[in-house]
């Protein structure tokens, strides 16, 4: 089914009507990624009379962190990501975080299903794909077995399978078993009902819907400053990157959803809630297969264990991806470092983010994360031969031929104040809103895009407390499981899973 609003992805030139449009709006969205697109889609249905304007510095939506080649994870549901189910000191596995993330992903599925069934977007952005965890060695195999026992007891994970049998694992993912030492202890778990999501395609579907619904879309426009206006709203300075012309747009509410670029604008706003936050940028690379015969023999998202000192976003995985409808195979990521906060950003991004209020947290994080620094240095120094060796731990018969090295997107991990340590490095997302609800910003990364709808519902609740009560019946129509813990309501879980599978074409 084609999108009903494909015009939203058009490139706006220097002579676009956007340059002479109104200088006032109810809602101003900064960034053309999945977060702004999702928030805009909610607001267009909850408050259809509000004026909304979106500003994106690039010439198309979804080209930075939302792009599938830049995104390290495409469909985080905690089915295979081991860092969401950590082992305690006594060896037990805590399932709480995995359950929480899976609950959120079901909210996302319901929202996307609503958008598809309403004819607002197509379902071409999502494909069915088994999610699998794979480890080797006694300690890791025992952990995975305990993880399986913990998670499979939860209704959300009841379909999970587990095996240490080489032949069974070869059925699930032949490339990871061919050529492997038959005496090596290995273990794997699998959920057949996983998905792969092209968030770049989804973003463009949503922005197409916004454009067709009257939202003013401004591509090639960079927001350089956000300041309080005398009316209590916000004055947003915007520059047309093609012409160099600047203008100021006044807004009642501003959402800063510019990926890594959000931190600078949050700092510019001066809101007390944003003080003390810093960012630690992490870059990465992937190996992408160019051999169609290899690509065709792997049909799963296979995650392993992270190296000691590695950030969670660097968990190695051998991934089937569907990008613009074409099947591909990636392995990685290989960690790296760049001071840029965006892939298309500036080398001055990191130093320019240092403020008196976040200097102590940033120094504390530097002191307490030497293992991460060591890991990144090691990754940067890794040769192509070393990268291939890492691939061969997953895929023993892999060679250097038929694989190309691509650069992934930037991830800016959140640094925040901590009363005991001075500062901590947070792997996840952080939603920040002003006390009066007039501005909000999203910092951080994983699970990010996969949980955009529940994150944006949380933002709506914080930013529009007076309106939110009146919106809840509509939200319930859009998300039938809203407010219900599906892990505690198995019949509703089964009903909604069946319904979203049908609408999203996942059967």
UniProtKB/TrEMBL annotation:
The keyword Flavoprotein applies. It catalyses: (S)-malate + a quinone = a quinol + oxaloacetate. One of its GO terms (biological process) is tricarboxylic acid cycle. Its cofactor is FAD. GO terms for molecular function: (S)-2-hydroxyglutarate dehydrogenase activity; L-malate dehydrogenase (quinone) activity. Signal peptide: none annotated. Its EC number is 1.1.5.4. It holds the Pfam family Mqo. Keywords: FAD, Flavoprotein, Oxidoreductase, Tricarboxylic acid cycle. Transmembrane segments: none annotated. NCBIfam families: mal_quin_oxido, PRK05257.1-1, PRK05257.1-4, PRK05257.2-1, PRK05257.2-5, PRK05257.3-1, PRK05257.3-2, PRK13339.1. Belongs to the MQO family. This is Probable malate:quinone oxidoreductase. It comes from Arthrobacter sunyaminii.
